[in-house]
Amino acid sequence: MAETARPRSSLALRRLALRSVGAGLAALLAPPALRAQAEGRGRIVLGQSAALSGAAAQLGLQFQAGARLYFARLNARGGVLGRAIELKSLDDGYEPERCAANTRRLIDEGGIAALFGYIGTPTSLAALPLATAARLPFIAPFSGAPALREPFNRYAFHVRASYFDETARIVEQLVSVGMRNIAVFHQNDSYGQAGLAGVVRALAARQGQPVATATVERNSVDVAAAVKTIVAARPEAVVQVSAYKSCAAFVREARRAGFAGQFCNVSFVGTAALAAELGAEARGVVVSQVMPYPFAATTPIAGEFLAAAAGSNVEVNYSSIEGFVAAKTLVEGLRRSGGAGGETLVAALEGLRDFNLGGFFVDFNPTKHSGSNFVELTILGADGKVRR
Fold first, then answer.
1. Residues 359, 361, 363, CA angle at the centre, nearest 5°?
2. Are the CB atoms for 227 and 213 separated by under 8 Å?
3. pLDDT tens across 243-267, in order?
4. pLDDT above 80 (res 33)
5. Which residue, 232, 227, 278, 284, is CA-closest to 253?
6. Which of 99, 184, 345, 363 has its CA 20 to 30 A from that of 172?
């Protein structure tokens, strides 16, 4: 059992997100020769469109903070073959049209080795065809949607497990404790549909189906109609597949409407953000996780992350460790590609066969770009603690 970090303001996180990768304290304290080496041979530039404002902002800000933490430490030690990594980020507010426009801009400006760390399903679906047309690697989207994985796309690399993996684990756990009357509250877009499809698939394997489904619009917290529909069906559990603000609103209103059953969320909800939104009402809410437990050094990668975060402004949570893990995966590919992007980086990443990042493994090959199926369940306490 470990405690989540104290919530920080969006303003503080935005300031962190806008910093230059090489401007961190670690970089300032690095030996001058290493800094000069990393800065003197040109930079490896990565492009990112992410939710840095709006209802999903905490996901983008936290993921980006973890990635920048890894890149800053790397740059302080000389970068990749003497070249510093620069993460060029644009805000899309978790809106697909803005994400597509940002992606076109990043591609048209040129000099991008890869696109990295896009946040969400609808935004990533808008960007992936553009990346594919430009033959740019699209690495570590913060999404488990099957539509990003099937059909196979040689430019897309996934570091996290899929939503089918997550919902299968959630349904397995619910059924194992006798809960078969399961409803689904989901975002009314490609992300929500992916999660719903995962629950339907998992229940069908057990000769069941959801007792009710209801939706909320993206970037909205208007959940009254959804609460009415689902509570009337008297489910024993509700699987939620939406962003943290709408999921928190649903939990609060459903409980006030008399629902006393179990709430379960997939990882995209953002565990720390959901706990902060709910406060004491987070008690008993389940969240599936696709990254190593970040609050204690129970794995080498978690220990590395905690050591890097110590003394920094980076909040320790599942979203920030995902950014850190994704950045470390990408850097290993860059090392093997000689710092090259594009097709050379694709080939290098495909060589990461059962690669150990420190107790967390990614496994790519030329016909498989889904690197992990790791899922575990956690539960939130009223005190903000995350229990495994």
1. 165
2. no
3. 999 999 999 999 999 999 999 999 9
4. no
5. 227
6. 363
pTM: 0.89
Distance CA 375, CA 162 (A): 9
d(CA 376, CA 370): 17
- Between CA 308 and CA 224 the distance in angstroms is 43
Element (H, E) at 218: none
The distance from CA 367 to its chain's CA centroid, rounded to whole angstroms, is 23
pLDDT band for 16, please (50, 70, 90 cuts).
very low
Which segments within 14-67 are labelled E, that is strand? 44-50
Contact in structure between 343 and 135 (CB atoms under 8 Å): yes
- pLDDT of 23 reads 36
DSSP letters, 295-327, are SS-SSHHHHHHHHHHTTSS---SHHHHHHHHHH
Q: In this structure, are residues 96 and 54 in contact, taking their beta carbons and an 8 Å threshold?
A: no
Query: Per the structure block, which two tokens stand in for 37?
Result: 């080496």
Q: 363: how many CB neighbours lie within 10 A of its CB?
A: 14
Residue 94 and residue 99: Cα distance in Å, rounded?
7
**Mean per-residue pLDDT for 12-26?**
39
Which run of H or of E encompasses 143?
A: none
Domains and CATH numbers, the chain: 2-161+295-362 (3.40.50.2300), 163-289 (3.40.50.2300)
Secondary structure (3-state) at 244? helix
DSSP 172: H
Number of C-beta neighbours around residue 65 at 10 A: 25
Question: Per the omega criterion (within 30 degrees of 0), is the bond before 151 cis?
Answer: yes
Asked whether 329 and 71 are in contact (CB, 8 A), the reply is: no
How many angstroms from the chain centroid is the CA of residue 132?
Answer: 21
Q: Write out the two tokens for 184.
A: 């689904």
